[in-house]
């Protein structure tokens, strides 16, 4: 009976959360005020995955890291024609369409092909660029490959969620297809011979080959319709007025051939300046930003997680009337649910799911998600800690006339805290590392920053080594500090 | 005739199906020292813990100063607990605080006493139990006898009307029993109302005004120590005394 009840509670809880995500999709097509909304806001938010030069990538402009590339130029043109300011938001390619559907961004320009499947979920403008696919290989092995059919028994890599990934799967036989989130990871995999070729759009391939002497490119000879090889701007489904307005800009771009004449050469210049100084020292600011956000996320999450943990643990130990029993079930269901789902899913849920109701910035979403997660774990530590304090302590305090709240605060919790300090310290150190999960929603913590440096410098390993050292410095310092307080709490 | 300070009527307590207290009706007058004796498992500790509601009675009434505790809300119960100090077999000092802090906690947090006043009071009480030189020590560094004396001082800090002692010397090494009993004797001499559960028959004989003999969930005898030890009325009491007095 008890188990069954707990299950029902967990289910109800899950449904409650899920409900928020499911309802709004039906209410979309009602009225289309997308254009006036953007004009009212005075800004147009563009989502992109800046690891795809020359479409979009990070470059250091006047000492500041900035997203540049031909897609950004397209975005700027659209925003300018609408008379609003362009705001560029970066996130992983996989998350782009979700961000669009949940209103995190107003449009997506990320070398995205308007495939029929995508067209079902979002609206596309006319094409602003038509390219083709190439395959990047190691220069030393260039002689081995002619086109996509030369990779029998070999592995081709492609960006997860991209058209290339699907087409490579469909149009090759006996070839393994390896998907990775970022192109710079794919290039690294290629250079370390984990994969034998990387399928990508021609302009990107040209950029990589121009910047890296060890790479070469070959034609792919994929059989593709024009919608598969071309790029368009994506808007939320049903925002016809906005699409029509953007189409005017896109048509101008095509008519004046702006991409080839202006945008690509400009992007190429950034690529050149980008690779001038690829030493890690040159990027210390980027790493520092990463460390800063990693620490902000961790400290805030542990703080709020601890408060939540105390509340949850007390709720889980509540005994008495219907209200307290209900509270106990609810807290138990929460803890079980959070522990039973991956943190990554929780982070995405808070950012995209909760984003349907309130528009939270990525950093806030990340802190909320990790606090909610860590609260569940800390609650269990605290519950164990409180149970480990002798019942006689409570009795002595109560016999002196202390209220149950004062007893908890002055007598039980300090002792519980001492008992669970090593576990809490462990949680803190784990969070320093696990906070990296929020990089998927584009928070510029350490992992995210290292990815930027990697695509900036075309150096795959060095940034990883740097952040490894940085993470270790942070966790080691944290563990020293925690040990110091642990010693101070010992009275015997 | 003085009004009784503690009045117990038809008190019963069971833990699930285990009936510990069956039907107890007794009273304690102000200034009285009552010693509760009886074989292990006879319900002595449970009885004592029902007096300040650390255990909730299953039925019956427990009145303190004319108020029935079983009918009061938590807030009022907390207020009345201040007036009943309790000393435990296992001391239950707070290990995360120094001796001084142990004593100061309740006066400051419950009565809202200022730090200076509480410190002064704590030193006074420590002098009373001969431990002022240990004010800054932590409980883990104290001997059992010292810890129990601190526990008594801690209970006294709330200026209680009644002190409840739950086998205060049972966990002590024999050579430390005396120092604790001396403190209790002094308290009794000062006129403190005390209910003491103990196996120290010497203490019962010399300090108690009344001896309650408890067995099988009932108070079997209630008499003066002289009467009880010389002329036990029930067979159970005779049997008990023959075992402990050899």
UniProtKB/TrEMBL annotation, chain A:
A Pfam family per the record: SBP_bac_3
Matching PANTHER family: GLUTAMINE TRANSPORT SYSTEM PERMEASE PROTEIN GLNP (PTHR30614:SF20), MEMBRANE COMPONENT OF AMINO ACID ABC TRANSPORTER (PTHR30614)
InterPro entries: AA_ABC_transptr_permease_3TM, ArtM/GltK/GlnP/TcyL/YhdX-like, MetI-like, MetI-like_sf, Solute-binding_3/MltF_N
PROSITE patterns in the cross-refs: ABC_TM1 (PS50928)
GO molecular function, one term: transmembrane transporter activity
GO BP annotation list: amino acid transport
Keyword Lyase listed: no
Topology relative to the membrane: Multi-pass membrane protein
Keyword match Disulfide bond: no
GO cellular component: ATP-binding cassette (ABC) transporter complex
Regions that span the bilayer: 293-315, 349-372, 461-482
Organism domain of life: Bacteria
Family: Belongs to the binding-protein-dependent transport system permease family. HisMQ subfamily.
Keywords, alphabetical: Amino-acid transport, Cell membrane, Membrane, Transmembrane, Transmembrane helix, Transport
Record's protein name: ABC transporter permease subunit
Subcellular location: Cell membrane
UniProtKB/TrEMBL annotation, chain B:
Organism (species): Levilactobacillus suantsaii
Homology family: Belongs to the ABC transporter superfamily.
Statement: the UniProt record of this protein carries the keyword ATP-binding: yes
Entry-linked PANTHER family: AMINO ACID IMPORT ATP-BINDING PROTEIN, GLUTAMATE_ASPARTATE IMPORT ATP-BINDING PROTEIN GLTL
CC per GO annotation: plasma membrane
Alphabetized Pfam families for the sequence: ABC_tran
Leader peptide range in chain numbering: none
Membrane topology qualifier: Peripheral membrane protein
SMART domains registered for this protein in UniProt: AAA
MF-aspect GO terms: ABC-type amino acid transporter activity; ATP binding; ATP hydrolysis activity
Predominant localisation class: membrane
CDD domains: ABC_HisP_GlnQ
UniProt KW keywords: Amino-acid transport, ATP-binding, Cell membrane, Membrane, Nucleotide-binding, Transport
Subcellular location: Cell membrane
Name recorded for this polypeptide: Amino acid ABC transporter ATP-binding protein
Occurrences of domain ABC transporter (ranges): 6-241
């Amino acid at each position: 009976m008890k188990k069954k009840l707990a299950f029902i509670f967990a289910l109800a809880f899950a449904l409650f959360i899920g409900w928020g995500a499911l309802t709004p999709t039906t209410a979309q097509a009602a009225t289309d005020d997308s254009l006036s909304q953007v004009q009212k806001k005075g800004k147009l938010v563009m989502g992109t995955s800046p690891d795809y030069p020359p479409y979009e990538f990070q470059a250091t402009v006047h000492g500041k890291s900035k997203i540049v590339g031909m897609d950004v130029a397209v975005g700027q043109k659209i925003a300018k024609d609408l008379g609003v300011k362009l705001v560029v938001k970066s996130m992983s390619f996989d998350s782009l369409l979700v961000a669009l559907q949940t209103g995190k961004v107003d449009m997506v320009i990320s070398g995205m092909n308007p495939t029929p499947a995508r067209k079902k979920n979002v609206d596309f403008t006319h094409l602003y660029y038509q390219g083709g696919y190439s395959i990047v290989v190691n220069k030393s092995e260039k002689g081995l490959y002619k086109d996509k059919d030369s990779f029998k028994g070999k592995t081709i890599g492609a960006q997860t969620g991209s058209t290339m990934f699907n087409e490579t799967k469909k149009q090759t036989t006996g070839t393994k297809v390896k998907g990775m989130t970022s192109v710079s990871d794919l290039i690294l995999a290629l250079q370390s011979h984990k994969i034998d070729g990387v399928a990508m759009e021609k302009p990107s391939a040209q950029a990589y080959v121009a910047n890296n002497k060890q790479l070469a490119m070959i034609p792919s000879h994929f059989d593709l319709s024009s919608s598969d090889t071309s790029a368009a701007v994506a808007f939320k489904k049903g925002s016809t007025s906005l699409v029509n307005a953007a189409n005017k800009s896109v048509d101008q771009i095509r008519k004046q051939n702006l991409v080839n004449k202006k945008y690509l050469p400009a992007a190429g210049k950034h690529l050149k300046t980008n690779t001038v100084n690829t030493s890690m020292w040159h990027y210390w600011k980027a790493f520092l930003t990463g460390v800063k956000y990693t620490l902000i996320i961790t400290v805030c999450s542990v703080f709020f997680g601890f408060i939540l943990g105390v509340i949850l643990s007390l709720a889980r130990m509540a005994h008495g009337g219907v209200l307290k029993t209900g509270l106990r079930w609810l807290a138990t269901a929460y803890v079980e649910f959070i522990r039973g789902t991956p943190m990554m899913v929780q982070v995405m849920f808070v950012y995209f799911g909760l984003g349907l109701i309130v528009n939270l910035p990525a950093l806030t979403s990340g802190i909320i998600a990790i606090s909610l997660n860590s609260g569940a774990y800390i609650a269990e530590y605290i519950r164990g800690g409180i149970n480990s304090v002798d019942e006689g302590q409570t009795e002595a305090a109560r016999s002196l006339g202390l209220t149950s709240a004062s007893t908890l605060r002055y007598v039980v919790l300090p002792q519980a805290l001492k008992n669970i300090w090593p576990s809490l310290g462990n949680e803190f150190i784990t969070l320093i590392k696990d906070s990296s999960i929020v990089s998927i929603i584009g928070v510029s913590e350490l992992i995210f920053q290292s990815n930027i440096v990697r695509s900036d410098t075309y150096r795959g390993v060095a940034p990883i080594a740097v952040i490894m050292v940085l993470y270790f410095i942070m966790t080691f310092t944290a563990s020293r500090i925690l040990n110091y307080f642990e010693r101070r709490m010992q009275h015997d | 005739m003085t009004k009784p300070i503690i009045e117990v009527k038809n008190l019963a307590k069971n833990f699930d199906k285990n009936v510990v207290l069956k039907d107890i009706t007794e009273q304690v007058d102000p200034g009285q020292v009552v010693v509760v004796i009886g074989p292990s498992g006879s319900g002595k500790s449970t009885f004592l813990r029902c007096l300040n509601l650390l255990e909730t009675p299953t039925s019956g009434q427990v009145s303190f100063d004319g108020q029935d505790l079983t009918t009061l809300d938590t807030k009022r119960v907390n207020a009345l607990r201040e007036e009943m100090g309790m000393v435990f077999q296992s001391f239950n000092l707070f290990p995360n605080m120094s001796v001084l802090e142990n004593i100061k906690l309740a006066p400051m947090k419950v009565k809202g006493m200022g730090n200076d006043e509480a410190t002064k009071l704590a030193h006074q009480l420590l002098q009373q139990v001969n431990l002022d030189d240990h004010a800054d020590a932590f409980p883990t560094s104290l001997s059992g006898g010292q810890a129990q004396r601190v526990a008594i001082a801690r209970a006294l800090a709330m200026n209680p009307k009644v002190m409840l002692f739950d086998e205060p010397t049972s966990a002590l090494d024999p050579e430390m029993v005396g120092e604790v009993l001396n403190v209790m004797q002094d308290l009794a001499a000062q006129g403190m109302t005390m209910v003491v559960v103990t196996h120290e028959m010497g203490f019962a004989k010399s300090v108690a005004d009344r001896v309650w003999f408890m067995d099988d969930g009932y108070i079997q005898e209630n008499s003066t120590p002289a009467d009880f030890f010389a002329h036990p009325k029930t067979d159970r009491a005779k049997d008990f005394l023959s075992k402990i007095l050899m």
